[in-house]
């Protein structure tokens, strides 16, 4: 027809669907020359006039399209052929016209021009809603939603709100830090030495330098170098990578915010975090109290404070403060906690804490004063031998923040690294490596400093009431997609599908024998008859017996 389904020209857009719904009633004169673009999401064709729905990034808008308005001349093909027959759900169109209100009170765009902007060759899943707005036949399979997030965002627009909130969390945190005069920086993702946390790294190889490199597990040691260099406060939002397990709260790559402020300690940092999170929650929700499942989480400070030993005493009923490694290993086995010989004293205490304490920490709670073996980068406690000045913030049973009074003694730091090397020699693949350059930076002198890390993904889970990290990541890590074995025409004919009905099954997105075997007979019969009619095929509908035969034969082949 001479119409390019993928035109190069820009299409002018001067309004959004949300803007129209919010302002049209009060400013009707401003909406007489509308130009808007988006996906075609529904159509109700009624002869020479039709209603349709267009969806842009802000929402949906009803369109009223008359044949003679978009085809003012003799040629009516744009309406009769293009709009009615060739366009489908999911296609991008641009429309121009003026706003009006229908007799039923629906704000609508009376279309005077229609332009095809992009043809979708794969049909979108059709999500149906009843008059009350309840969804059925929804695109709800998590495997498909996470793997095909582009479809999820299109047919489940409410999912966008999670990611809009995520962006607002980050921007409000950034505004808070900038308002205090702290500098946002960037540090290397590819690092010669993996450090800053106890975790297993991803390793790669740089060809030109012929050397191994690691994806960072933390940016801590580089940010501290900048404090050595003279900055009073630096922070970074960035991706971290840990070659570890995956579950509802862990993804191999995740977003962390780390901040370091000179001349502060972990007590100051607790007060800063309380102020920060209360302000962020209020900015997002208008209140510091948020709903998480059936719980109400109050981010108003001050938060409860418990030492690591006190928390284990309270929730596990045992005092581990004086236990050595052998006693802790025995205790773990008595508690049914799985341990191995690579675990030192610090990791054994951490296992007990994770099993017996974490789930009880629902309201924001600081766990403070960790055993020195658990934290190689924190300063020794000012008054409690064997402990370090560290806290973790737990909310709803999960850690979302970790902070220290930072270790700035280069001699002490070297000894801590050496202890980590001993653990690595025992087989602990999460032990830290020796970083000679970082030690050299400390030797030049680092002022007293407090550092903090906040997990952005987990904070977003809390503030959007999501229980899985995959819901707050646009593209979570997935297993390789299984290749779908598309049934050939010959295979479909073998199970009894007439050759002329094969296009019908393809249009219904039934590509495999397994899909046909799992189909519900009455639904497949009705869908096949409806699609044959929609495609205007001059062939007989299949009978119910035919359809049942396809399903039985396909199931037999799968067995």
Automatic annotation (TrEMBL):
GO MF annotations in UniProt: ATP binding; lysine-tRNA ligase activity; magnesium ion binding; tRNA binding
Keyword Plastid: no
Residues where Mg(2+) 2 binds: 399
Subcellular location as annotated: Cytoplasm
A Pfam cross-reference name: tRNA_anti-codon
Annotated EC: 6.1.1.6
Catalytic activity: tRNA(Lys) + L-lysine + ATP = L-lysyl-tRNA(Lys) + AMP + diphosphate
Principal location: cytoplasm
GO CC field: cytosol
Cofactors (names): Mg(2+)
Domain (Aminoacyl-transfer RNA synthetases class-II family profile): residue spans on this chain: 166-480
Cofactor note: Binds 3 Mg(2+) ions per subunit.
GO biological process, alphabetically ordered: lysyl-tRNA aminoacylation
Top EC class, one word: ligase
Keywords attached to this entry: Aminoacyl-tRNA synthetase, ATP-binding, Cytoplasm, Ligase, Magnesium, Metal-binding, Nucleotide-binding, Protein biosynthesis
Sequence positions that bind Mg(2+) 1: 392, 399
Database matches in HAMAP family: Lys_tRNA_synth_class2
PANTHER family in the record: LYSINE--TRNA LIGASE, CHLOROPLASTIC_MITOCHONDRIAL, LYSYL-TRNA SYNTHETASE
Subunit structure: Homodimer.
Similarity annotation: Belongs to the class-II aminoacyl-tRNA synthetase family.
NCBIfam families per UniProt: lysS_bact (TIGR00499), PRK00484.1 (NF001756)
Protein's name according to its UniProt entry: Lysine--tRNA ligase
Originating gene: lysS
